[in-house]
Amino acid sequence: MNQSSSNQDGAALQSIQILSFVLDGDWFGVEIGGIQEVLEYRTVTKVPRTPAFMLGVINLRGKVIPVVDLRRHFEMKTPEPTVDSCIIIIHVEIDGESTALGILADRVKEVLEIDMSNISPPPKIGSRVNSNFIYGMARHDDNFIILLRLARVFSSEELQRVMEQTETLPQPEVSSENQGE
Q1: Which domains does the chain have, with CATH numbers?
Q2: Where are the alpha helices (DSSP H) in the chain?
Q3: Rounded to a whole number, what is the distance in angstroms from the first to the last CA of the chain?
Q4: Distance (Å, whole) CA 46 – CA 56
């Protein structure tokens, strides 16, 4: 995911596609390749003894999906969900296996194609988010979008703990009502 990245033909990437979303008034973005879908906000079932950033779990087509709040992880304000709140289902690698994880967002903005020349390295100071999590700062119109490295946002130990807590939960019954959720 750097400027010298190349596609299958060996040509350098000229742009990336990102999903942009808002957390506590700031724009963030993640490459769309790791995103499964965006869901309307729904009730999240709390799970005891999980990290503070884990909201709980949801039932998605018969699978238990953990949902995390990046605002808590980034030590931002955490208001109650609104009509614009949504859950972005992403895939992260845990022990070499792709695992679905939900991220709560205040709202999703849009899918953007960002020219690589409009991406700057993350600032060394001044960001509310640890710069190890940041791939770069993308300029779009008059705004900056903080591009996240999802693989680095949570430590493997944190994700492993979340997944272990989730795996101990009984898998929900799949009825004809929630097949399409």
Answers
A1: 15-167 (2.40.50.180)
A2: 70-73, 150-153, 156-167
A3: 32
A4: 4
pTM (predicted TM-score) = 0.77
Q: Which burial class, exposed, middle or buried, applies to 138 when counting CB atoms under 10 A from its CB (0-12, 13-18, 19+)? A: buried
Contact of 166 with 46, CB cutoff 8 Å: no
Tokens of residue 115, six digits: 């020219």
Rounded Cα gap, residues 79 and 102, in angstroms: 18
What is the C-alpha separation between 168 and 173, in angstroms, rounded?
Answer: 15
- Give the tens place of pLDDT for each residue, 40-68: 999 999 988 888 888 999 999 999 999 99
Tell me the C-alpha distance between 68 and 70, whole Å.
Answer: 6
Environment class of 79 (CB within 10 Å of its CB; exposed 0-12, middle 13-18, buried 19+): exposed
